[in-house]
Amino acid sequence: MNVELKSSSADGRLTAAFDAPVTELYATAAGPDSAPAMTRALELRSFLAIAEEQVACVPDRVHAAMAPGCDLAELSADDLRIDARWLEAALDARDGYRAALDELLHTMPPPGQRPRTAHRTPHAVTAHLPSRVAAPAPQRAGAGRHRRP
To answer: Number of structural domains, the chain?
Structure first.
C-alpha cells in the first residue's frame, strides 16, 4: 500500500498547518512550486506512518502466537524478546519522527506569512588557483617528537 494513503497521527496537524488535506499536500509537493518545509513535513509524515504501522504489527504478532488454539509449548522466549526489541525500536522511531515533525511545524511561520518559493538560476562560481602551488607536506609533518631514554 502506498504510504501516502496510510493514515498517521500527524495528519490533523499537517492539514491545519498547511490548510489542505494530506492527499492534496502530496500532490502539491510533487509540483515545482512546493515549499521545502512542506516537502520535509511530508517526508517525516511518511516515515511516521510506517513507524506507526510497525508499532501496531508487533502486538498483533505476539497476540497471534498466543491465540487460543495455538500450542503454547511452541512459544519461544527468544521470539518474544526479539519482538520486544522490535517494538522498542519502532516506538523510538515513532517518537523521533513525531518530535521532528512537531519541531518543524513549530518553527514554521503562520500560513499567511509564508513566503512564496522563488525559482532562481544558480550563480556560477569560479575559483582561481594560485600560480605557485605549495609542495606537499612531508609524511611526518606535525608528528610529535620522541624522546630518547
So the answer is: 1
